[in-house]
C-alpha cells in the first residue's frame, strides 16, 4: 500500500502551485488575453502549460503547508505580483488610448462616444481605434512572449519567500500613473501640433474673410487633416509602444 505524507505532497505541489497562482493572476489582468471574450478554461489551460514549460528556469519553491498563515500570505503575494505585472502592461495600453482621446478631442470626434462591451466602459471612436490597433500590435511583435518572460524572471527578482510584500517597496506601482500622461502626450503630440496649426490657419482665414462660415468648413478640414495624420503616424506607433512596454517590464527582471 502506497502512503504519502503531507510533507511529500507539499513538496510536489509547491513547484507548480505558486507559479500557477502568479501567472493566473497575470492573465486575469493582462490586456488582450485577459478579456472577457477569452474563455476561462482556455486561460487556465494556457497558464498551466506556461508553468510546466517554465519549470527548468524557475528557482526552488518553498514547501509551505497550505493551511498555514504563511501560505495565505504567499498566495496574496503571488496574486499581487501577477496583477501588478498585468497592471503595468495595461498602463501602456491606457497611455495609447489616452493619446487617441487627445487626438479625438482636437479633431472634434469625441462626441462619437459609445459603450464598449469588452472593457465595460464608455469610449470614443479614436481611443477605441488606437486601443484595437495596439492590441493587434501587441500580438504581432510577440509582446506577449516578453510578458511571459517577465513573469518567469519575476520569480528571481521577487521570489516566493518570507517577505511577501517586499516587492511593493521595490516597484512603487503607485507612481506609474504618470506614465499614462507622459506616453500619451508623447504619442499624440505630433498630431496635436498639426491640428493646432490647422486651427491657427482657420482662425486667420476667419479674420481675413469674415463673410466665410468658418464653422461650416472648419470641421471637415480638421477631421480630414486628423484622419490623414493618423494614417501617416500609425506605422510609427511601434517604437514608443515597444519602448514603454520594455521599460515597464524591466521592473520585474
Write the SSE topology:
Layout: H1 6-29, H2 40-53, H3 69-107, E1 113-116, E2 121-124, H4 125-140, H5 143-157, H6 166-171, H7 177-208, H8 214-233, H9 238-249
Antiparallel strand pairs: 1-2
Mind explaining what this structure looks like?
With 253 residues, the chain is mainly alpha-helical. The chain has helices at residues 6-29, 40-53, 69-107, 125-140, 143-157, 166-171, 177-208, 214-233, 238-249; strands at residues 113-116, 121-124. It has a two-stranded antiparallel ribbon. It is elongated, with a radius of gyration of 24 Å. 27% of the residues are buried. The model has no long low-confidence stretch (mean pLDDT 82).
Overview features:
mainly alpha, 253 residues, two-stranded antiparallel sheet, single chain, 2 strands, 9 helices
Structural class estimated from helices and strands? mainly alpha
The neighbouring-strand order within the major sheet is 1-2
Approximate strand percentage: under 5%
State Rg.
Answer: 24 Å
- The helix/strand order is HHHEEHHHHHH
Report the major sheet: 2 strands, antiparallel
Low-pLDDT segments, ≥5 res: none
